Amino acid sequence: MFVKTSCNLIAITVFTATIGLSAQNTGFESNRTRRPDTTLLTYYLKRSGASVPQPLCIIMQDSAKESVLPQSKDKIETPLSAYEYACTRALNSTMHVLLIEKAGIDGILCRDKEFHSLNTIRQRSQDVLTVTTILKDTLGNSWDGSTVIIAQEEGAEVAALLVPYLWRVRKVLVIGSTLEWPLSTVLEQTYLKEHKSTRKGFAGQVEDRAQKAYLLSQIALIRTMRSPNVFFQGKSHAYWAARLDYAPGRDLRKCRAPMLVLAGSLDETVPLQACDDFAAMCLKEHAKNIKVCSYDGLNHHLQNYSAQVPQTVISEIDAWFAI
């Protein structure tokens, strides 16, 4: 009887060990099938001596190049644009900086500020998917949520797509430049697309309906956003991100974040009053979740912008970094 029992115990032990080895092998195979770009980014992070989790600053812009970044701390004293000021604040902090352009990942600046070039991904759909996969696989479940995203120009579209998939993002800073269309044209396009109407008779009362539809789409987005903080600079990007029938608008509503709007324009066809009217509408509908600062001169290009950033805007950005 004793011998029989011992044999049973040995059999159970061997069977259990076999199951354990099988599970380990399965996990190992799963790790081997990770995306190559994820492994590459992890390698760069580890090579820089970074420990995960660390605060991570993502900077998105049209053309992510090392030369566009501030090269010294002196720039922060006389910033030429709100974007440059925000970048300087980020680079002078302890955060990692991931440079992303609308075509894909361009490079990563680690804490030592050394620039590492990565192969860009030339398809927008893969762009968002890959960035999301990289961050989740690299930071994992231990991520403390202290991520900051700074988006520039059309990178705002990528940011709007990316934010909902980063489940513990603390805050997002999106910096735009000019209003790309006259406000009346935007309202017309909104109405025609949402109501599948025609241009015939688009005047008077119909135009008012278009404006109402546009404002309702903004309000509907705002009411679904709770936390963390989304900081939009540039009325046109705030508009495109809020469109209910536009992909970034649909996805951004999932992040439940209050919107901080820094609205302004270099486009002479759209007066600053239009931005102020938009801001007033936002504040009236959802004052607790929205803060608005309007000023002229948002474009970061030096040939179009020579004045310094107003102190009020600098204060707003400082307050954003302090959150």
Give the helices and strands, then pairings.
Elements: H1 2-32, H2 36-47, E1 56-61, H3 82-91, E2 96-101, E3 104-109, E4 115-117, H4 124-139, E5 147-152, H5 155-162, E6 171-175, H6 183-195, H7 205-223, E7 229-233, H8 235-242, H9 247-252, E8 259-263, H10 272-286, E9 291-294, H11 311-322
Parallel strand pairs: 1-2, 1-5, 5-6, 6-7, 7-8, 8-9
Antiparallel strand pairs: 2-3, 3-4
Helix pairs in contact: 2-4, 3-11, 6-7, 7-10
Model description:
The protein has 323 residues and is α/β, with parallel strands linked by helices. The protein has two domains: 154 residues, no CATH class; 121 residues, no CATH class. The chain is built from eleven helices and nine strands. Helix 10 links the parallel strand 8 and strand 9. The longest helix is centred in the N-terminal third of the chain and has 31 residues. The N and C termini lie far apart (71 Å). The N terminus is likely disordered.
